[in-house]
Amino acid sequence: MRKFSPALIAVVTLLLTLLPGKASAATLTEVTNFGTNPTNLRMHIYVPDTVPSRPAVLVAVHYCTGSGPAFHSGTEFARLADRYGFIVVYPSATRSGQCFDVSSPQALKRNGGSDPVGIMSMVRYTLQRYNGDAGRVYVTGSSSGAMMTNVLLGDYPDVFKAGAAFAGVPFGCFATTDGSGWNSTCAQGNLVKTPQQWGDLVRAAYPGYTGARPRMQIWHGTADSTLRYPNFTEQIKQWTNVSGLSQTPTSTDRPQSTWTRTRYGSQVEAISIQNGSHNILTAGMAQYAIDFFGLSRR
């Protein structure tokens, strides 16, 4: 048997380490004709190169003035999808200002119309096209997308198992009846209700529903000047009430020096960021959302 010198072996080993790894074929792709879409939303999807036979689905919803592709490139969810093998759906709003409808009576009712119906069509398309796991559908978003996260959990509690809202407001807080998409009272943190009142708004979206409610993770910066910090507390009131929980935390900790995390059983988790601005979704936070969903466990 021929023997090779240690020097030759060392050179070959070095060359092998310098060779490029296998290139990823996964790319963001636009999907059209995905189903009922009353407000002409656009849909983009990211499917990793490797997914399990029944992959989980995450809907990632952008901020005002944004788009699905911008949210894809500006957040870590696609990279985490590569790591953990779930599919990401990125809706894009098409109305002026690229904000999602979280204020009309249609949006705040199950199958009522508007943007939530289009997003639900995206979910159904993805589950069917990629043999997705209907028991593992999640939603997250920032600003307008965080508001939509609250809305989707209220409208479709039987579809979404959990949500993570980065700088949002409670379900129904932005409600208007004059066709306006902006509610200054809510945005300024001046719409205060009891937990029961907030919970009743969610329950009214799907009357008669008695099944399990989604888990909720809430993020907010104390220095948010766009959607003021009191909306953080109002969301906690709402989702603890919906889940039948006390507003008294079952645990409190500090994952980072400026973060205070309170947990309410296993259903609701709230992270307050000291001096955090409205643009709160920064590097590393997406991992916490993925962990909360359970998507980091294959």
Automatic annotation (TrEMBL):
Signal peptide from the UniProt entry: 1-25
Classification via Gene3D superfamilies: alpha/beta hydrolase
Coiled coil: none
Recorded superkingdom: Bacteria
UniProt-listed Pfam families: Esterase_PHB
GO terms under cellular component: extracellular region
Transmembrane segments: none
One example GO MF annotation: hydrolase activity
Record keywords, A-Z: Hydrolase, Signal
UniProt name for this protein: Esterase, PHB depolymerase family
